[in-house]
Amino acid sequence: MATIHLHNDAGYAQRIRARTHQLQADEPASNNGTDTGPAPYELLLAALAACTSLTLRMYADRKGWDLGTIHIDARFSRDDCGLENIERTVTFGNALTPEQITRLGEICEKTPVTKTLREGTPIRTAFV
User: Fold this and answer.
1) pTM higher than 0.90, yes or no?
2) Rounded to 5 degrees, what are φ and ψ at 25?
């Protein structure tokens, strides 16, 4: 369904290829990186936000709802006990009815990346 290829020569900067797209990941300078790209958790939040926006737009288009612009803020945090949390805030450019907002909230909980993060996904690692 999805595949990426990552290459790292040295240091923390990572070159990532997804299909024909080139991405960069790195750590901020405060974490001994060179800050040439988003950190891994920022990429995770970007995936969640992009999936949310795309799914909401597809749903609204099918319903004939004009959402206007979609703006999403996402924040990852970890408390003193190690409990991790993601907060997602969605804003639409156009006014919507309370019923539309309720339904779009339900759709947010069903986006593919949301479901993957909530359910957890087994990860198998191989070395070659």
Assistant:
1) yes
2) -130, 150
Q: Any bridge partners for residue 21, and if so which?
A: 18
d(CA 39, CA 12): 10
| Cα atoms in the Cβ-side hemisphere of radius 13 Å centred on 41 | 11
Per-residue pLDDT tens over the stretch 48-64: 999 999 999 999 999 99
CA–CA separation, 45 and 64 (whole Å): 28
Pair 96, 59: CB distance under 8 Å: no
CA atoms of 55 and 68, how far apart (whole Å): 14
- Which residues lie closer than 8 Å to 39 by C-beta, 6 or more apart? 25, 26, 27, 28, 31, 33
